[in-house]
Amino acid sequence: MENMSDLRYLEVDVPEGFEPMTQPTKSQNRLRNDRIQILPVEQRDLVEVAKLIYDAFPPVFWDEIEDVSKRPPLAGRCKLLAKHLSPVLQTAGYHVIKAVDADTQNIMGTAVWMENGQHSGFPTSFGGLPEVTFPTHFVPTTLRDDLIGPLAWDRKMKWSQGEVKEMYAHHTPAWTEELRGYDIGRVKEMGDRPHWYLAPLCVKKEYRAMGVGKALMSYGLDKADMADPPLHCVLETLPNVRPVYYHLGFVPTAEHGTYKDTQLVRPPKGHLGKS
User: Fold this and answer.
1) What DSSP string runs through 46-96?
2) Which helix (H) or strand (E) holds 100?
3) CB neighbours (10 Å) of residue 208?
4) pLDDT given for residue 140 in this prediction
5) Pairing relation of β-strands 195-203 and 232-237?
């Protein structure tokens, strides 16, 4: 991985309502490597992970995909999102990880990497568009709320219809459309090529620009680079974070998303500049 210390990033425009552009890590602020532990997320971590996800995106993002008149207070939404994430921990293809401060044992950040390489067992027609057939190795975006039935998570977790309804009662159609659109765009870009996919990556505000995000990124990038042959990596990003990924070799794809996010792809190691 490249050294990101003390480097300037390409300036990008950030829409109103979003945080200022993420700044590169300065060497004097970087945590020592042995202080950042990358570990699997456990069931007991999920409410904190859900809070990290909510904090990582600006209110304008959530106001677009949640019904403000129906949603419970933040603590309640975090519990519902944690419940949705529970079966993800037990489903092949998902790597749900956390960055832990070795000195304090605090969770500093989290990420979900999806390994799209071998037959996943997921249905190939859950995408929502008849002209899109998903490859047999495709692993869908973690936070989609239309996965419960197709992936049988309700039966696996023994959720009642009432529990499922409660989890998603405050979601607007935009929630499903937004996340399903990411998967459809990914299929259009990658076809049946195996790849690693990142969604989401979140770092607590007090630990940002300290190398935590890079450690969470390295988990998937290193696995993609060590594969035989090396694999692409794909993600969507908010505009304020985009320069970080440009610096790591990601470039915009043709399926580039909306004003507030961009789909990026990182070609396999040794093939930068090619796709």
Assistant:
1) HHHHHHHHHHHS-HHHHHHHB-TTTPPPHHHHHHHHHHHHGGGGGSTTEEE
2) strand 94-101
3) 17
4) 82
5) parallel
- CA–CA separation, 94 and 222 (whole Å): 16
Closest by CA to 216, choosing from 237, 230, 202, is 202
Give me the chain's average pLDDT, please.
82
Spatial separation of the C-alpha atoms in residues 244 and 249, rounded to whole Å: 9
Among the listed residues 143, 139, 151, 113, the one whose alpha carbon sits nearest the alpha carbon of residue 50: 143
Residue 22: name the closest of 227, 193, 212 by CA.
212
Sheet holding 232-237, edge to edge: 36-40, 94-101, 107-116, 195-203, 232-237, 262-266, 251-252
Kind of pairing between the strands at 94-101 and 107-116: antiparallel
pLDDT band of residue 118 (cuts 50, 70, 90) is low
- Reference 259, options 240, 243, 239; nearest CA is 239
CB 150 within 8 A of CB 126: yes
Query: What does the chain come to in residues?
Result: 275
Exposed/middle/buried for 59, CB within 10 Å: 0-12, 13-18, 19+?
exposed
| Cβ neighbours of residue 251 closer than 8 Å, sequence gap 6 or more | 264, 265, 266, 267
Statement: residue 3 has pLDDT above 80: no
Question: How much is the pTM?
Answer: 0.84
The Cα–Cα gap between 1 and 119 comes to 29
CB 142 within 8 A of CB 94: yes
Phi/psi for 37 (5° steps) reads: -105, 125
Taking the CB of residue 117, how many other CB atoms lie within 10 A of it? 17
Residues 198-220: what's their mean pLDDT?
A: 93
Whether residue 197 has pLDDT greater than 80: yes
